[in-house]
């Protein structure tokens, strides 16, 4: 059996403790010395560090609010890649694979997992660079399929329901004033016109009052 | 292959048309009816835990899994077709209810002249002024034939709206350009979101006739003629691409299935992938399919109904070698011809000074104008023969999809601190003025069998040969003019529309309105099915759904698909009662 790899994330970002499902078993992860060690499902620790560093440049933490680190974007991506999406279960993957016009979209053979593995390999030593050098490096790959995925996944990890591992502590939704899934706005939809109506965000699990899980944790 | 006991009627597909046909036949006759659905079972309680953007809106959990089956596409007969590898321009559903579960609920009747389009265009513009290679046809039915059937569909769903044309009397506030209705809508219109009001004001200022889109998201609690009760819309914003968690959006599972589940002569089998229609000497004898356990099964039946998505109807006919495949070179053959989509990849993004609270909304909640629908408002100088509708929807903004929307050119990079700051500044302040235009049928746009790529069963995929023509480019240019006027009248910032020819893209979402391939008509020379959707060559086979549309209309196709299914069901029931069997 493969040795389990972990990534350490700042505890304050993840709210100190979180429930995390690994292979069906639910773990309570507790902060030690200000950090939470989160078990990885797909990345190695070294890969996760590169991805986390790159996501933090795409969606930086700054005076406007939290970024990819606080939201746990790397956990989101790790779980997506470990699940059916990462293994290309939602894409037509029969050959022959041929290059075509842009109107036909991505026609490559490589799955999201393979695109990440290959993309990360081009970013050796990335996590140890300073922010300016990191940005410079990312600009050299920003037209690649890997970077396009990384950028999309970063936004997904910032603003997904926390059941997927990102948007930890609802930091993303709080920043943009998205209230999460709610049962009804029947009394509000024709009110508050022209002014911001910002109910306190709640996750799907909070709204339905029981644990929920994403497709990546099923079967 | 396992051979099952024969049934009277077997139906392919458990979506709107399949279950509507099943409900009509099973509740009006004692015939035994079996519906075969490829996807899994569904129930409303599933949808509460389905309010999740990642799994449902981004990974398409309610759609057919494209890993199992897709189409190939090429722009012209000279190009090589490649598969659509991930969903983009349209989203066919799977599972009980089909796309009728995840639709947005726009419930339109088509314009009166749509049903006689070929004759109408010749009369209005003259054959010489029509676009090259135009292949539009008359449907062989008229709006008058369908009016009572539209009404049946609207009553079944509980459509919300306001009539703008009651028996010819024009009524302000409704759609004064709509085809004449015999009855007011079953329910009043939905409530208005902020964006609806802003669009309404601008449209009125310009002298247009704004109205709220007719909607199968019920504005109030409603009990339909079958005694099925549903709640009013909660405006939760998780509508299109999702199933409705309170059942306020009319879906096959909350309108038809409750009736069918009480019928002893009806059976719904899920997980069944139909591969062939078996036929002998001009009669269908049953269906071959692979069941949920992977076993090959033959289901004998006296009557076969194809009620899958338009593409799958055509595919099953082609694989079963029923009818003559269309040849675009000679114009001979009918199966696969008149493929149309929709001219809707022409949205203008607008930016408001105030927040929209856009997380609140309903799939079909949209303020719109029909002043340029059909050929209303066209002078002939636009270079187009059909227009479309303009609307601003409040369907429910979701955070991942919406983030990063900002006026074009605001930042240089699509990531990093500047981009984050600009994205946050524009959160919840943008919307789109969409144009939904009629896509005319042309000789060169069609479906056939792909020679190379296969589905998971090893059967060939359907190939689309489809591209935009000069007419669609001009429709977009015309639309951009109206969109610009509307945006200016609204007093908002907007992105300048990008004009010029574009090629058909499988990447950009247009609509899930794929039409044609098994079109209806009055002659077997020009159509696959007759005006009751009965196959010309195999008379105990009905092919229902948008595959029968000779061309696309600007209005969403669902209500018309149901009206035509009722027509086909009446025909099937009548022929069954005459001869005992069809």
The main sheet of chain A comes to: 2 strands, antiparallel
- What would the principal axes of the Cα set say about the shape of chain B? globular
Q: In angstroms, what is the radius of gyration of chain B?
A: 23 Å
Q: How large a portion of the residues of chain B is in β-strands, by DSSP E?
A: 15-25%
Taking the alpha carbons of the first and last residues of chain A, their distance comes to: 19 Å
At the fold tier of CATH, the topology name of the largest domain in chain B is FAD/NAD(P)-binding domain
* Number of distinct beta strands of chain B: 22
Tally of separate helices of chain B: 13
Quaternary structure state of the chains depicted: heterodimer
Count of the separate structural domains of chain A: 1
Q: pLDDT under 50 segments of chain A (min length 5)?
A: 21-25
Helical residue percent band of chain B: 10-25%
Categorize the overall geometry of chain A: globular
Task: Find the structural class of chain B using helix and strand composition.
Answer: alpha/beta
């Amino acid at each position: 059996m493969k040795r389990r790899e972990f990534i350490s994330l700042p505890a304050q970002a993840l709210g100190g403790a979180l429930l995390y499902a690994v292979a069906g078993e639910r773990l309570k992860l507790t902060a030690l010395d200000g950090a939470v060690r989160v078990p990885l499902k797909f990345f190695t620790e070294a890969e996760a560090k590169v991805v986390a560093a790159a996501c933090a440049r795409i969606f930086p933490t700054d005076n406007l609010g939290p970024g990819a680190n606080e939201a746990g974007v790397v956990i989101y991506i790790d779980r997506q890649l470990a699940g059916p999406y990462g293994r290309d279960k939602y894409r037509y993957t029969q050959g022959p694979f041929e290059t075509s016009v842009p109107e036909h979209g991505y026609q490559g053979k490589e799955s999201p997992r393979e695109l990440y593995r290959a993309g990360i390999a081009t970013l050796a030593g990335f996590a140890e660079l300073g922010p300016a050098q990191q940005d410079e490096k990312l600009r050299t790959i920003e037209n690649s399929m890997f970077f396009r995925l990384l950028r999309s996944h970063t936004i997904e990890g910032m603003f997904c329901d926390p059941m997927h591992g990102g948007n930890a502590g609802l930091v993303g939704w709080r920043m943009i004033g998205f209230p999460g899934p709610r049962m009804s706005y029947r009394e509000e939809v024709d009110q508050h016109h022209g002014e911001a109506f910002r109910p306190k965000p709640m996750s799907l699990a909070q709204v339905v009052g029981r644990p929920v899980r994403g497709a990546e944790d099923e079967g | 292959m396992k051979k099952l006991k024969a049934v009277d009627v077997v139906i392919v597909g458990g979506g709107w048309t399949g279950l509507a046909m099943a409900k009509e036949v099973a509740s009006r006759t004692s015939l035994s009816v079996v519906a075969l659905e490829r996807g899994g079972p569904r129930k409303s309680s599933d949808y509460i835990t389905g309010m999740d953007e990642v799994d449902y809106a981004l990974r398409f959990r309610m759609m057919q899994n494209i890993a199992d089956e897709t189409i190939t596409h090429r722009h012209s007969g000279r190009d090589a077709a490649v598969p659509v590898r991930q969903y983009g321009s349209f989203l066919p559903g799977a599972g009980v209810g089909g796309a009728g579960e995840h639709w947005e609920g726009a419930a339109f009747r088509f314009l009166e002249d749509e049903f006689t389009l070929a004759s109408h265009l010749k009369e209005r513009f003259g054959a010489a002024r029509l676009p090259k290679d135009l292949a539009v046809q008359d449907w062989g039915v008229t709006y008058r034939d369908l009016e009572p059937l539209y009404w049946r569909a609207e009553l079944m769903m509980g459509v919300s709206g306001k009539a703008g044309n009651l028996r010819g009397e024009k009524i302000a506030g409704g759609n004064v350009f709509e085809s004449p209705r015999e009855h007011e809508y079953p329910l009043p219109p939905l409530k208005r979101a902020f964006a609806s009001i802003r669009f309404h004001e601008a449209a009125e200022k310009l002298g247009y006739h704004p109205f709220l889109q007719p909607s199968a998201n019920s504005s109030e609690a409603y009990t339909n003629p079958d005694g099925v009760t549903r709640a009013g819309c909660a405006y939760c914003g998780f509508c299109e691409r999702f199933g409705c968690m309170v059942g306020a959006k009319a879906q096959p599972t909350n309108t038809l299935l409750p009736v069918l589940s009480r019928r002893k002569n009806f059976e719904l089998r899920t997980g069944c992938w139909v591969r062939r229609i078996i036929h002998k000497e001009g009669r269908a004898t049953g269906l071959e399919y692979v069941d949920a356990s992977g076993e090959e099964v033959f289901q004998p039946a006296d009557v076969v109904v194809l009620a899958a998505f338009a593409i799958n109807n055509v595919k099953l006919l082609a694989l079963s070698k029923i009818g003559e495949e269309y040849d675009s070179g000679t114009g001979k053959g009918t199966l696969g011809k008149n493929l149309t989509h929709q001219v809707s990849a022409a949205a203008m993004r607008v930016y408001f000074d105030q927040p929209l609270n856009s997380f609140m909304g309903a799939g079909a909640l949209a303020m719109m104008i029909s002043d340029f629908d059909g050929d209303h408002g066209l002078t002939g100088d636009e270079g187009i023969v059909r227009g479309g509708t303009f609307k601003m929807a409040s369907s429910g903004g979701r955070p991942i999809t919406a983030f990063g929307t900002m006026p074009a050119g605001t930042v240089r990079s699509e990531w990093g601190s500047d981009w984050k700051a600009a994205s946050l500044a524009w959160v919840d302040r943008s919307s789109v003025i969409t144009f939904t235009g009629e896509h005319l049928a042309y000789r060169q746009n069609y479906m056939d069998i792909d020679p190379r790529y296969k589905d998971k069963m090893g059967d060939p995929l359907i190939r689309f040969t489809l591209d935009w023509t000069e007419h669609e480019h001009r429709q977009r240019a015309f639309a951009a003019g109206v969109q610009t006027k509307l945006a200016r009248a609204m007093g908002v910032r907007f992105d300048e529309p990008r004009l010029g020819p574009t090629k058909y893209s499988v990447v950009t979402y247009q609509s899930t309105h794929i039409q044609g391939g098994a079109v209806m008509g009055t002659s077997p020379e020009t159509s696959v099915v007759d005006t009751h959707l009965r196959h010309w060559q195999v008379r105990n086979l009905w092919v229902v759904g948008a595959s029968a549309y000779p061309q696309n209309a600007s209005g969403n196709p669902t209500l018309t698909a149901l009206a035509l299914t009722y027509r086909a069901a009446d025909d099937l029931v009548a022929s069954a009662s005459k001869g005992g069997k069809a």
